[in-house]
Automatic annotation (TrEMBL):
SUPFAM superfamilies: Ribonuclease H-like. The keyword Transport does not apply. The keyword NADP does not apply. Signal peptide: none annotated. This is Integrase. Residues 162-342 form the Integrase catalytic domain. Keywords: Plasmid. It comes from the Bacteria. It comes from Novosphingobium resinovorum. One of its GO terms (biological process) is DNA integration. GO terms for molecular function: nucleic acid binding.
Length: 511
């Protein structure tokens, strides 16, 4: 019976076999006895294993790729044009995206490359894009309201929705206070349709119920369906007489979720992360200019998200003991779900079909990136040397950049953290008055050590420069020697000292 694992057996054969084959007859017997005792092999079988020359195994498999660099490059462009979706959501979008981009002259794919792209599975898409991908994630919020008023608004739970017609929407607010919740800042109102996933976003200058109702009126004009239901959390900006009376007057079913049960609003909570935070990030935005830029961003994003961003929708959920089994519908865009819904009238279908034919996903993505860049410049208080840095790039140049954009890391400006300020000198320079003198001594006698220079300085100006400055002088001396060596090297190679001398102040600030 074998006493060791297969892996250990192979290692023993490789280690002992060479010694066994080169040993004399007496030594072979000892090696064999030891090997049999360890492995438990039959003696004859052990002899055959040790006599055999080691097999050289093939370390690499023959090339079996069916997706060449041209296909991978085209997939990168489509992935960037979709705003970096995962493979499962990108797969159903590829034919839509190819058709839209070819229709606007952004793509001219070879039929063979197009066929390969259309046959890719989600797992293959993720595998090809693995090198180009990156991750991110962050925080949340809470709210309260008056008890009498709350009792007048019925509760609707996650399981109460059933299969509502398009127009029943969940609502939530996203804060843009940044790391400090102090003062006044902008908010985003998010509305998500239960049936189709259609999402509308709008900025609020302040968190106030009258302003919220005015923004809601404007959003209703943009929706492709009438607003039938308005489901919010228990935040006081939603649960108040102003919003309740407005919903009653316009025959909108007003409901709320249970307190501290965020899963009751799972649809809009998911969009808070995948749409709002993904687009805007976590910086602080305040004032009219920030609200205007957010409105500019959402104007392009609402079309991009609803027409070119497939999402999953839960089809069935069942519990088997402690395990929950979930089944999802195939990924589809809100536009596709709205077109497929039998309750959508023909007039709405015609209007949406006409709009979809005129939309250019690359142009929308460029407008989104430009608005994001403007928001970052505003939030981080960046002073631009060239104001055109935040203007939209030419569409052709933007399209060309999509293929190699992944090499630069995160593409969304709002997802890149603000660069920390470089730490500067925090104490006055103790050698500021004598730096020129020390450098002159060094140039006269470059072989002098830091201690010798300090002793010379102490002899000239006693009781002013203590021994504790030795390390500072040594660092400064090191910088001067580096300068000197660089100047010598470059003067021989180019006929002149092309190395730029380093100013003493530069060396000081580096310490």
């Amino acid at each position: 019976m074998r006493k060791v694992s297969m892996a250990t057996r192979r290692e023993l054969i490789e280690a002992v076999g060479a010694r066994y084959r080169s040993a004399d007859r007496a030594s072979k017997g000892k090696v064999l006895d030891e090997f049999v005792a360890i492995t438990g092999f039959h003696r004859k079988h052990a002899m055959r294993l040790l006599r055999a020359e080691p097999l050289i195994r093939e370390t690499t498999r023959p090339e079996r790729r069916i997706y060449n660099e041209a296909v991978r490059g085209a997939l990168l462009v489509l992935w960037e044009a979709s705003d970096r979706l995962c493979g499962k959501r990108l797969r159903p979008l590829i034919p839509i995206l190819i058709e839209a981009m070819e229709g606007h002259g952004h793509l001219d794919l070879d039929p063979a490359i197009k066929a390969r792209l259309l046959q890719m599975s989600p797992a293959t898409i993720d595998r090809i894009l693995r090198i180009a991908k990156g991750n991110n994630q962050k925080v949340r919020r809470r709210g309260v309201a008056g008890s009498e008023l709350r009792r007048s608004v019925p509760i609707r739970t996650f399981s109460d929705w059933g299969d509502p017609a398009p127009g029943y929407m969940e609502a939530d607010l996203v804060s843009h206070s940044g790391p400090v919740a102090k003062g006044s800042w902008a908010w985003t109102l998010t509305l998500t349709d239960i049936a189709t996933g259609w999402t509308e976003c709008a900025p609020l200058l302040v968190r106030e119920q009258t302003l919220l109702v005015e923004v809601l009126k404007e959003l209703r004009k943009l929706m492709p369906f009438p607003l039938l239901g308005f489901d919010s959390d228990n935040d006081s900006v939603f649960i108040n007489e102003t919003v309740r009376d407005y919903c009653a007057a316009t025959e909108i079913a007003f409901t709320r979720c249970r307190p501290y049960r965020k899963n009751d609003q799972a649809w809009v909570e998911q969009k808070n992360g995948s749409v709002v935070r993904r687009l805007v990030g976590y910086r602080r935005f305040e004032g009219l200019e920030a609200a205007g830029l957010l409105a500019e961003l959402y104007a392009a994003a609402r079309l991009f998200v609803n027409f070119f961003q497939p999402s999953f929708k839960l089809a069935e959920k069942r519990r088997d003991g402690a395990k929950v089994h979930k089944r999802y519908h195939a990924p589809a865009t809100p536009f596709q779900r709205l077109m497929d819904d039998p309750r959508t009238n023909e007039q709405t279908r015609e209007r949406l079909r006409d709009l979809a034919g005129r939309l250019d996903p690359v142009r929308l993505l460029r407008d989104i990136r430009t608005a994001q860049q403007k928001l970052v410049v505003l939030a981080d208080a960046v002073v631009l040397a060239n104001p055109n840095e935040t203007s939209p790039p030419p569409l052709g140049a933007f399209l060309l950049s999509l293929k190699a954009l992944w090499q630069n890391g995160e593409a969304r400006p709002t997802a890149v953290d603000k660069a920390p300020r470089k730490r500067e000198r925090r104490r006055p320079d103790p050698l500021l008055q004598v730096t020129d003198q020390l450098k002159a001594w060094f140039e006269e006698e470059p072989w002098r050590t830091g201690r010798e220079l300090l002793e010379k300085l102490q002899a000239q100006q006693p009781d002013i420069y203590p021994d504790g400055l030795l390390r500072t002088i040594q660092r400064r001396l090191k910088g001067w020697r580096t300068e000197h060596a660089r100047a010598l090297v470059f003067s021989h190679s180019s006929g002149q000292a092309s190395a730029t001398p380093v100013d003493a102040e530069t060396i000081l600030t580096a310490m």
